[in-house]
Specification:
alpha+beta; five-stranded antiparallel β-sheet
Amino acid sequence: MRCDRGQTLPIYIWLSGILLFVAFAFFAFAQAASARSGAQSAADAAALAAAQDAREELVLGLETAIGNADADWLDWLDGDLFPGNGADAAARRLAAQNDSAVQGAAQRVVVNGYPGYRVEIKTNYTVGDSIIPGTESMRAKAHAQAVIKPRCDFDLEADPKKPVVLDCDGETIDIDPGDFRPDDLPEASVLFSVYLAE
């Protein structure tokens, strides 16, 4: 009996060591998955911020074009005339709020025919210490794309110098260039939707 106990103890210690190693390995993978999830959330937020900033530029450009007798303001409803001056800064602000940094710059893209932005980020925080060497300095990376989709239809024969009726996903907007005030336009989200896309 004593001999059996003596043989069982090393096996028990060996199995306990293996179980501890497996537990620490799972913990390391969980740390990496958490960092990756945080990075993706930061990338999503940054891409949406860039596209939303571009949408605001679209509405400002639309307001200016409607007030300009020589401009075809209906072209602005296609959603691709934004200059994109503040998109990169907006993406960087949102990435920073999520403890991450934009890599390079927010890139203007076209996805499924819609204009938008692609943003790549890297977290400022690391995966953390674990039994896997190198994780203490490893940072998570992710990317995301957000697009701007026009929501308004109108008569293709419409004259931009005359009153035009817009159908924005069921909401009717009347625009009279001859008697226009910026307040006549609805919220930007009524004219253009912004969403994540792959």
